Amino acid sequence: MRDDxxxxxxxxxxxxxxxxxxxxxxxxxxxxxxxxxxxxxLPREIREPAPLALSLAELGSLDEIRVxxxxxxxxxxxxxxxxxxxxxxxxxxxxxxxxxxxxxxxARTDATVAPxxxxxxxxxxxxxxxxxxxxxxxxxxxxxxxxxxxxxxxxGILAGTFERLPWGAESAAEHYEFRTFSRLVLGALEASVxxxxxxxxxxxxxxxxxxxxxxxxxxxSEAAHRLLAEALTYILEADSATLSYNDPEPSRxxxxxxxxxxxxxxxFFRFLGFGLLLLLGLKxxxxxxxxxxxxxxxxGYNVDKPTPAIDWGxxxxxxxxxxxxxxxxARKDLTxxxxxxRRDPPMPPSxxxxxxxxxxxxxxxxxxxxxxxxxxxxxxxxxxLAAAMVQPSAASLxxxxxxxxxxxxxxxxxxxxxxxxxxxxxxxxxxxxDATGVVxxxxxxxxxxxxxxxxxxxxxxxxxxxxxxxxxRSLLDQIGSRVIGAAIRARLDTExxxxxxxxxxxxxxxxxxQAERKFRKRTLIGIAVCAVIALIWAAVAYFARNxxxxxxxxxxxxxxxxxxxxxxxxxxxxxxxxxYSAFLERxxxxxxxxxxxxxxxxxxxxxxxxxxxxxxxxxxWLDILAAIYPPSETTVRSVDRTMPATAPKxxxxxxxxxxxxxxxxxxINEAAEVGxxxxxxxxxxxxxxxxxxxxxxxKLVEDDGLRGGPLADLWERRVDLWTAHAGELRxxxxxxxARRFLEAEDKLVxxxxxxxxxASPVTFGEFGAEPWPEANPDDLASWDERRDFTLRDGLARGxxxxxxxxxxxxxxxxxxxLRRSTAVTRSAPxxxxxxxxxxxxxxxx
Length: 845
What we know:
Elements: H1 2-10, E1 17-19, E2 37-42, E3 45-46, E4 50-51, H2 52-57, E5 65-71, H3 76-91, E6 97-103, E7 121-125, H4 146-155, E8 160-162, E9 176-186, H5 188-202, H6 208-211, E10 216-218, H7 221-241, E11 251-252, H8 261-279, H9 319-343, H10 350-365, E12 382-384, H11 403-406, H12 411-422, E13 429-430, H13 440-461, H14 475-502, H15 512-543, H16 554-626, E14 651-656, H17 660-671, H18 676-689, H19 693-702, H20 710-716, H21 718-741, E15 748-753, E16 762-763, H22 764-769, H23 777-782, E17 788-794, E18 803-805, E19 809-820
């Protein structure tokens, strides 16, 4: 019997149950209850024998326990069961346990009467299926599993479990006989396999255009890439380009001073005193002429806030000291800004993530679109993209010294991010065009700064490396690569421009001390030459006075030499004034360049702080969206169905008949309604946060992505959450599809057993009604109509719910006919020994 049960269990026809061999029933040691081993049979699964007591203890709370003793009628077996019965009654609670004694005749003519075993309800299998020999269920064959089939129905574990046993209320003091019939419609496993294949293989590769071609159009080739590019532009420009690096515009120098000739002369005359004093050896010490490193107001310049000029004569500013002070203050400003941004980083608005989620789901499943995204229809159908053009590529380990690249989802995204970081952007410094040469110093400084910045940028970019990959092809891959590349470029710009804003400047090519020495040397030499000329003129005027014209007197010559000396002195002073102006121009422009680098570093630092958060959150969103309907290479195996070859004629099993087109339509309607990706994400988030779908998604898009938050929690559990949801979805879809198998009585079923009927499909209605043929006079005379028990249930809507059908069952129909045995003399049941408690036991029991 147990060997036959193993075969039926492998076929999925027996519910979860424990089976004990009667060979060990008489050798039980009451002091060693775990010596009794039982084999657990589950649908399509056979467990290894294990201690019965331990197996029962692991089950936990049960609604009802059914113990069935299936045996031949020989009376000597009653004594051998007492030890096992005693052990079981010690282990099992009496109020939820039913005891069934099922007697199996050894032959059709066997009339042996088995004694009643006490509190067991004895049911003897009648050695016939039906009384009329002309019906399909007629005949008794010892080679068929009639006893097992009848016992499984009596216990209520054939193809599931019965919620109740109506015949279990009969008296244990009576002998009963019974016969059983069953009709099983299997195929729920086929529905589960089809649902599994559809969820794991079809949906991940499809789009709304695949399932609803009259409403949606799946674009291909150029049209698909154009739509992808438009979607990429839309999401990168959403909310002021939150996911892009908004590198600063070129920094322009202040316009040159605009002085009138009169102002220029005033400045020169103001400088004359300084030059003349310098000739006399009264050298002015360098001194900062402004109290700020950036603010000065001299010769018409006005950088940032105007600062009143200090009117104390011409002084030489110490631009080296001012530059060092400016570098220190820039370092402090950038350090304070960095601390502020780390303490309170600029967060991307939640609208960006809501738009991202809706965009990448709707562009594939045709669901609700984000605000502002409304691509034009193609041929009166809404355009969508195939899943392969939207979903990210498979994750892989990226080995790189760059932290942003090492955290990329795969090598393709990392390489595309490097290309994005290398993309040419705005030049840093721009000087005003001026044909007169007034801003030549600014132009030279801008050119030098841009050249130095370009060289340093090339050095930074040369350090970026990642394993070779296929590149970013899908929409999510390109979004991820753009954000990572933008974050890298923002960081490199921040580091480079911080270096220029806080590092030492190049030495000024104009040495003021050298200019002073050159001025004094030139002027003194000129004056000396004029003095020599005056001496020569004095000699000539004295010794050649008779030769010279009358008007060329000595005073006239001295006046001419003096005029020459004055002109030379003025020229030298003006040249020195021009050198002084150039010195001021170079020094002030040098401070201005540092100011421009500081401004750019501050902008880049803010951008990097924002993109650092955006990069982390984008990577998490990519992983989460990739976990929803991920592509699977696992092969879904078809059902390997094998029915017991010795099934009795009182049992028939069948499979529903359906076409490939029908089941595909059912699967689409049940599992792939428009918006299936967004709906799946909502359910996964809802399960993760134990909240409604709307509240869960709202929490996700508003989260900052830090550890411990909803987004990070969902990201860490994404695989397990999706696996759980996919399992729930598979059960829902397979159940709905299995119900559609039999949604109408005229659905055809193919009979599996008995094999003699396999060639003739019948309708579901006819098949389910077979266990209830009209009773003939023989039946009415032999069986009690009051004990004619029927049970019919299934997955179709309106099922009775009286049976917990098995995983492979779509519908069941059972009939059990019961009658009192009239061929035996009733005897009193064997009493079960009861141990009375005394006073000493009251404190224990």
